[in-house]
Amino acid sequence: MFDSTLSSIFGSSESLVAAITTGEFLVCCVASIVLGMVCAGIYMFRHSYSKNFVVTLALLPLIVQMVITLVNGNLGAGIAVMGVFNLVRFRSIPGSAKDIGSVFLAMAIGLATGMGFLALAVVFTVIVAIVNLVFVATPFGQPKEQAKTLTITVPEDLEFDGMFDEVLERFTAEYELIEIQTKNLGSLFQLSYLIRMKGHGEEKALIDSLRCLNGNLKIALGCTPRQRETL
């Protein structure tokens, strides 16, 4: 039963353009469009996106299919051509890890439908969809504790070097002083730390302990802006 899944509807002809019929071509186009929409749906699952990229992702399998058909089943030539097209999209704006992975998924679907392996394309898309659902819905790959930015304001006459280390060691798993800057025309200093908390719900206790040391001046604790995920 699985042997038929791994066979092409075009048979073993070396030239796809010479062997393909209009009906077969339209069937492949429909399969590419449907699977392209599934690929776009996988990309949109719990991920921020733009309509332009989603539409492009949905059309990409159809475009790849046409290229593979026109190069007469020469898989190497098809990959080379689509590689050039792919570089045009990412030549100046780096894509995120999921962006690039979704592009490769759409290209793989297009390669399969372009060669006539429709059943294989469907099975492959279903497998990727299930695995993506499992990975995204579970804590797989999720950091244990997100880094946070702690800013402490101190008066200019306070010797702050190492002053907060004991409190930070008590409440954080790791910390690093990343910036020192002056405030209010030099009358205040602001220390910026990158920290990871040891446990949940200890933020107030940390701030209360720091307030006793910095003269009850301003203290801010917030999430670190996430950088764009790239490969």
Keywords:
15% strand; 231 residues; alpha+beta; 9 helices
Summarize the structure in words:
- The chain has 231 residues and is an alpha+beta fold.
- The chain contains nine helices and four strands.
- It has helices at residues 2-5, 16-19, 22-44, 51-70, 75-90, 97-114, 118-137, 165-171, 203-211, and strands at residues 148-155, 172-183, 188-197, 219-223.
- A hairpin with a 4-residue loop joins strand 2 (172-183) and strand 3.
- Helix 3 packs antiparallel against helix 4, helix 3 (22-44) runs antiparallel to helix 6 and helix 4 (51-70) packs parallel to helix 6.
The number of distinct helices, counting runs of at least 4 residues, comes to 9
Order of helices and strands: HHHHHHHEHEEHE
**Quick one: overall form?**
elongated
β-strand number: 4
Q: Main sheet, how many strands, which sense, barrel? A: 4 strands, antiparallel
Q: Output mean pLDDT.
A: 79
Bin the helical content.
40-55%
**Terminal Cα span:** 38 Å
Radius of gyration: 27 Å
Strands of the widest sheet, in order across it, are 2-3-1-4
What percentage of amino acids are in beta strands?
Answer: 15-25%
